[in-house]
Write a structure and sequence with these properties.
This protein is an alpha+beta fold and 197 residues long. It has 8 helices and 4 strands; from the N terminus they run βαβαββαααααα.
Length: 197
């Protein structure tokens, strides 16, 4: 049994959804960053944290990759060209989609008020829109990012696109809007939201 530490309105949702896709049992501690439960396992105070027995794994992408590898699902096998392509897509989403969203969030409510620079937010929105257009142009014909099989990058991108809507960045590319609707219609996505609420 795994334990996921972190609230629903955070990157912890990515891990919860992946666990539902894998059909695995878990417990969920719905706490925020820097809470005592988090700091006990991750001194930085960042969420999510996954407990596998007594061992803590941090960072949502690292956790998802670990679980997918361990359970042999939602991933191409390590050491294959398919995995190299998958990892490249994962890093692209982290850098070009998640990055601008996180930059805007930090300067909206994460950083101490005296450290925020609200003027960076339009630049972050521009960067996101540019990356969104490039990703829409590069998407293949499959229902998922890597073709016919759902993989870790699909969970990552879906979460980021939902975040973009909440952050008022918007999702303007029709192919990505349709993709987001399909992904949010998955049973495991809905179940993870219900359980975590």
């Amino acid at each position: 049994m795994y334990t996921v530490i972190g609230g629903l309105a955070s990157r912890a949702f990515r891990v919860l959804w992946l666990l539902e896709e894998l059909g695995l049992d878990y417990t969920h501690l719905k706490v925020g960053p820097r809470s005592d439960e988090v700091v006990a396992h991750n001194p930085s105070g960042k969420i999510p944290v996954l407990l596998d027995g007594d061992v803590a794994v941090t960072d949502s992408v690292a956790i998802m990759t670990y679980l997918a590898d361990k359970h042999g699902a939602l991933t191409a096998p390590a050491g294959t060209l398919a995995r190299a392509r998958q990892d490249a897509m994962t890093q692209r989403i982290v850098d070009e989609i998640d990055g601008p969203l996180w930059l805007a969030a930090r300067h909206s409510f994460v950083l101490p008020e005296e450290q925020r620079v609200p003027e960076v937010k339009p630049s972050a929105k521009w960067e996101f829109a540019r990356a969104e257009a490039a990703l829409a142009r590069d998407m293949g014909n499959g229902p998922f990012l890597m073709g016919e099989a759902m993989t870790v990058p699909d969970i990552l991108l879906t979460h980021c696109l939902g975040w973009a809507l909440v952050a008022k960045f918007g999702v303007t590319e029709p192919v990505l809007s349709a993709y987001l609707d399909r992904m949010r219609d998955r049973d495991a996505y809905k179940l993870s939201r219900e359980k975590a609420a």
